[in-house]
């Protein structure tokens, strides 16, 4: 089965420096020296030879077609095809003159491995959909191997700028992440619309779905292994330099994969997923007027309008509640979002309501939940994920 929705048919796509619909921010990251260049499509579908234009600057030379053939805007040379036009300027080092500046195609920058060709991706059955788009099961030709993948595709060809920006932000965050407990990112298909992110295929469910549907058969040891996998994934993310802040940690964003046919404890691997809200760095400001998941939000981060590693630690504490409540329910289930805001988030310390530990939660896990959710003047006493992983691993080994 071939790739869907391919709109770029010209043979210039065969160049190893063809980068599809690459945003300016990513072009700036690739082009660091004079006369370095790539070939890409701009947001308006124009085909462009994009060159280094100086520090934090790029120059775009549009490829245009008329009755005589293909030419660069403002330049005289004409060739029968876009490929031959690029080859002419590349092989002859013909000067490209624009506003007195002289550029030449001397050093092509190869397409990064995570920019995937639509020809190497096959779509299969639909797995689910939401406001962001549709998720398919599919296959990816990775070298000489065909592997199962999940393909997260934006809906429709008329993609909103915000959707596109969020997709690229998620892709940039995930590039280079390699850990058993973090869902693997293979790349983004950007030579066709709508764009797609290609991820590791997970044969299980999200943790919240698993607990809703199969929680009755899940003992404390299995639940502890779930939080151990989450802790290991978060430890890895926070250990990067600069660190990755997930900022949307919850059981809905933890996925279970089974390394084998049987759903046994030894075969279960939990992976951190969904990096749509993630940031990289020690600290970031946030817009508290934007919709957010208040039930998992650190009240201190809301008041300071800033997020850091401890923001994720607080969310992990809430996630512990989710994993050990029987039967499963989301935090503050009997409260509206407005009541959560009024009773937990935007309220003086003395009146703030705490999330109660679930009945039957192991004492050691309950103590960890309390430590993760310390606030106000005790916020800095929250443990790091390095400490959390050690604590949970020790609890698990004793079970």
UniProtKB/TrEMBL annotation:
Residues 121-397 form the Protein kinase domain. Keywords: ATP-binding, Kinase, Nucleotide-binding, Transferase, Tyrosine-protein kinase. It catalyses: L-tyrosyl-[protein] + ATP = O-phospho-L-tyrosyl-[protein] + ADP + H(+). It is an enzyme of class 2 (transferase). The keyword Translocase does not apply. Its EC number is 2.7.10.2. The keyword Isomerase does not apply. ATP binds at residue 157. Pfam families: PK_Tyr_Ser-Thr (PF07714). GO terms for molecular function: ATP binding; non-membrane spanning protein tyrosine kinase activity. InterPro entries: Kinase-like_dom_sf, Non-receptor_tyrosine_kinases, Prot_kinase_dom, Protein_kinase_ATP_BS, Ser-Thr/Tyr_kinase_cat_dom, SH2, SH2_dom_sf, Tyr_kinase_AS. Belongs to the protein kinase superfamily. Tyr protein kinase family. This is Tyrosine-protein kinase.
């Amino acid at each position: 089965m071939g790739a869907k929705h391919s709109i770029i048919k010209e043979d210039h796509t065969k160049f190893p420096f063809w980068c599809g619909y690459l945003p300016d921010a990513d072009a700036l990251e690739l082009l660091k020296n004079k006369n370095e260049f790539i070939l890409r499509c701009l947001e308006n579908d124009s085909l462009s030879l994009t060159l280094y234009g100086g520090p934090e600057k790029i120059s775009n030379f549009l490829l245009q077609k008329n009755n005589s053939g293909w030419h660069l805007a403002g330049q005289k040379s004409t060739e029968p095809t876009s490929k031959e036009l690029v080859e002419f300027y590349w092989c002859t080092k013909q000067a490209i003159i624009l506003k007195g500046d002289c550029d030449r195609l001397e050093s092509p920058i190869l397409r990064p491995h995570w920019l995937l060709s639509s020809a190497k991706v096959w779509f299969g059955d639909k797995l689910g959909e939401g406001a962001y788009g549709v998720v398919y099961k599919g296959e990816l030709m990775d070298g000489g191997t065909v592997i199962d993948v999940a393909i997260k595709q934006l809906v429709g060809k008329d993609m909103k700028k915000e959707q596109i920006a969020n997709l690229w932000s998620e892709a940039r965050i995930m590039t280079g992440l390699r850990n058993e407990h973090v869902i693997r990112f293979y790349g983004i298909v950007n030579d066709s619309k709508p764009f797609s992110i290609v991820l590791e295929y997970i044969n299980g469910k999200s943790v919240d779905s698993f607990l809703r549907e199969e929680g009755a058969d899940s003992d404390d040891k299995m639940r502890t292994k779930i939080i151990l996998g989450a802790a290991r994934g978060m430890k890895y993310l926070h250990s990067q330099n600069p660190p990755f802040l997930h900022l949307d940690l919850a059981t809905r964003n933890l996925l279970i994969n089974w390394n084998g046919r049987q759903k046994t404890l030894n075969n279960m691997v939990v992976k951190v997923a969904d990096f749509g809200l993630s940031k990289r760095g020690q600290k970031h400001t946030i817009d508290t007027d934007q919709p957010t998941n208040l039930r998992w939000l650190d009240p201190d981060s809301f008041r300071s309008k800033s997020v850091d590693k401890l923001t994720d630690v607080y969310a992990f504490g809430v996630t512990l509640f989710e994993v050990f409540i029987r039967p499963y329910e989301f935090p503050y289930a009997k409260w509206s979002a407005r009541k959560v805001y009024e009773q937990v988030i935007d309220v003086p310390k003395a009146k703030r309501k705490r999330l109660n530990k679930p009945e039957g939660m192991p004492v050691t896990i309950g103590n960890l939940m309390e430590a993760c959710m310390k606030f106000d003047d005790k916020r800095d006493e929250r443990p790091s994920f390095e400490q959390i992983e050690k604590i949970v691993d020790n609890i698990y080994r004793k079970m």
